[in-house]
Amino acid sequence: MFPLAAPTRSSWLPEVLGDLEALLVDHAHCEKKAASTAMALIYRYPEFPEMMAPLSRLAREELHHFERVIDLIRSRGFEFKRMFPSPYAAELVKHVRREDPHKLLDTLLVCALIEARSHERMVILAEGFEQAGDAELADFYRTLLASEARHKREYLDMAHRYFDTKEVDERLQVLAAAEVEVLNTPGPEPRMHS
Q: The pTM is what?
């Protein structure tokens, strides 16, 4: 599960399956936020031209996923709406150092960790929906797995392109441990990253 430091707790799947609407709406918001993060990096770091095309592709793909989840929400008779986000990403971002170049490295690694956790959870969801007899959602989550894994790799590749391997690996261990700590104090409602 590299770069994750620990697997998802076993209680997560029953929690999110118990509120399908909240899961799907939160997932849509996560895809939208992932696209926004990629775009923010494009705006913030134009001096790193090798990042521009991968980030642009990533943002478009995240928006495509957003549209697909919106379609699923509607087809299930639910409504896309504002919701309080899980504290997951906000808590992780608190571990990002504030000055560049450290800020860029930490941001890329946090993005890789979020994508890795999303990939892991989508595997769990695909299996869970398969067991629950919901072939549509099982297939949907399986179709996202390759892109989630690729997004994780792309963020890690960008980190390795601009930073020393030893520094990347050491910082990744610190942030991966912080990510597990964040998940060990889940928010009040089930979410993709609760």
A: 0.95
